[in-house]
Write a structure and sequence with these properties.
heterodimer, A: mainly alpha, two-stranded antiparallel ribbon, 11 helices, B: alpha/beta, Rossmann fold, four-stranded antiparallel beta sheet
């Protein structure tokens, strides 16, 4: 058996998985890192992105790329605004208390899920890919749209990293992450930073949802798997560590792709769960996290 | 002339009263030293002025503007610089990024930064270094420089000499005196009486969250029994 085509296919599938995971997990990691909030409703922001793409596909006429581009713009804005409102209405009121935020985001998760169910029904909804193009390899053809997903994800993550490193907003976010009180002592509006971070985290998840919907269908329960995998990535990478999250997303995504192609998707899930267990036992701060922060 | 006036600050941690009618007045170009035993409420007083501990009542006048009740982030923007106990640098950020945060607080140009680098030239060579990797003395210099970057009219220092070598303490003391000479009002919290006596203009003694007495420094130097009475040390 020639292993090269299988390896290439597994790598490509892994990269697609890693790209979407990177976006979703980065949102979760950013929110935890800066705000110390474990956002259990994060998967619902992903789901809302996918549902928004389906709504755009039904409401906006024209070739499939028109509603898709509209969804890429509208979904993050809508979901970001919703997250901003949730921060204002819930998290700010409970003073970002870590335990209380877990309970309240569980509540938020159910509210978003049930509202989506009531509004759009229980059926999974398919959305056309914005374009159909096949990249030909000597052994098989591969969806050009999946390359597009990888490109969009890496551009967005690169942009976010640049923003964090080289902008005033990024500096404020990092300062708030390291020491909230001292940040306030230097005029940084910490509650505004929190609101912004919560919205940006949700926007990243929503974009992940839009990108994934042509291959997965939109459904009100579709947020569970991305949430769990994002938690896996964030724990493996190191809570709140952005480079750790990126590296862990690539590790988990790639291993998922390789194990699914060569063995079975179930084994891939077993591997990621085992990895979390090993990390928690031998390196609880995560592969890239710092101990005792 | 009075630059900052704190009137009747009362603050609580739960049911425990941490500040009782705390009142002080600072004039431009002077060093007021706050002395007191451990747990007297000195750090709480500074945090209450900075707004990170919310006072229940009182008034905070800075150049005739009452800042009481304003959000914590507005206090430094009004011109109060703060060097917290333990320095509290953003240790994962570089020296430059720490200073940049100070510069962005009020966005009043680079005068504060230029003056800080004139006082602490060693920081110029460390701009790209992570601040957590600096020596203790350099970290204190950076914490002071960061506060100076906001071009404050008042600067509050909470035990800046804590854990420093004698040579580093002398450098910090010189910097405080230069700051005072430039017209800045300095509120200095210290445990070490010997570090205070050479540079303070006035001393306020604090106990159980309130100011018990206030003296010009000459009186304290002449009557060291005051030190024994209020902070339990001989001199």
């Amino acid at each position: 058996m020639d292993i090269v085509p299988y390896l290439l296919l597994a790598t490509l599938e892994g990269l697609v998985q890693a790209s979407v995971l990177m976006l979703t997990a980065l949102g979760l990691s950013l929110v935890f890192g800066v705000m110390r909030v474990v956002n259990v409703s994060h998967g619902e922001f992903f789901m809302l992105g996918a549902v928004a793409a389906w709504v755009c596909a039904n409401l906006i006429p024209g070739p499939p790329y028109v509603p898709f581009i509209a969804a890429l713009l509208i979904a993050p804005v809508f979901v970001g605004a919703l997250a901003w409102a949730a921060d204002w209405a819930i998290l700010k009121r409970i003073n970002y208390n870590p335990e209380a935020t877990i309970v309240s985001t569980i509540g938020l998760m159910y509210i978003i899920q049930q509202m989506t169910l009531i509004t759009f029904g229980p059926d999974a909804q398919a959305v056309d890919a914005p374009f159909y193009y096949t990249v030909r390899f000597p052994w098989f053809g591969y969806s050009g749209y999946k390359f597009f997903i990888i490109a969009v994800a890496f551009v967005l993550v690169g942009g976010l990293l640049y923003l964090l490193r080289h902008s005033k907003v990024g500096l404020f976010m990092r300062a708030t992450q390291f020491d909230k009180e001292t940040a306030q002592n230097f005029g940084i509006p910490v509650t505004k930073v929190y609101s912004g971070v919560f919205a940006v985290g949700a926007m990243l998840a929503a974009i992940g949802g839009v990108l994934v919907v042509p291959s997965q269908q939109a459904h009100y329960l579709m947020g569970h798997d991305p949430l769990l995998l994002s938690f896996v990535v964030v724990i493996v990478g190191g809570l709140g560590s952005i480079p750790g999250t990126i590296a862990a997303a690539i590790l988990i995504g790639m291993s998922d792709g390789l194990l699914s192609v060569f063995f079975s998707p179930t084994l891939a899930k077993i591997f990621s769960t085992l990895l979390v267990a090993l990390v928690l036992v031998f390196r609880p701060q995560g592969l890239f996290g710092k101990a005792g922060r | 002339m009075s630059v900052m006036r704190v009137e009747g600050y009362n603050a609580f941690y739960g049911r425990s009263q941490a500040l009782r009618d705390f009142s002080i007045e600072l004039r431009g170009g002077e060093v007021l030293c706050l002395l007191g035993r451990n747990g007297a409420g000195k750090t709480t007083a500074l945090k209450a002025i900075m707004g990170t501990v919310k006072p229940a009542s009182g008034a905070l006048w800075l150049d005739d503007v009452n800042l009481f009740g304003r959000p914590a982030e507005e206090i430094p923007r009004a011109g109060i610089g703060y060097v917290p106990q333990g320095r509290r640098l953003f240790s994962e950020l570089t020296v430059w990024e720490n200073l940049e945060i100070g510069l962005l607080t009020r966005e009043q140009g680079r005068d504060g930064l230029d003056y800080a680098l004139e006082l602490f030239p060693v920081l110029k060579e460390r701009m790209k270094q992570r601040s957590g990797t600096l020596s203790g003395g350099e970290q204190t210099m950076l914490a002071m420089a960061r506060a100076m970057c906001i071009t404050p009219s008042v600067i509050m220092l909470d035990e800046p000499t804590e854990g420093l070598m004698p040579s580093a303490i002398a450098g910090i003391r010189d910097a405080v005196m230069k700051l005072r000479d430039s017209g800045v009002a300095v509120l200095l919290v210290e445990q070490r009486v010997d570090a205070v006596l050479p540079i303070a203009d006035r001393v306020a003694f604090m106990d159980h969250g309130e100011i018990k007495a206030e003296f010009p420094i000459d009186e304290v130097r002449e009557n060291t029994a005051l030190l024994h009475q209020y902070v339990g040390v001989g001199h």
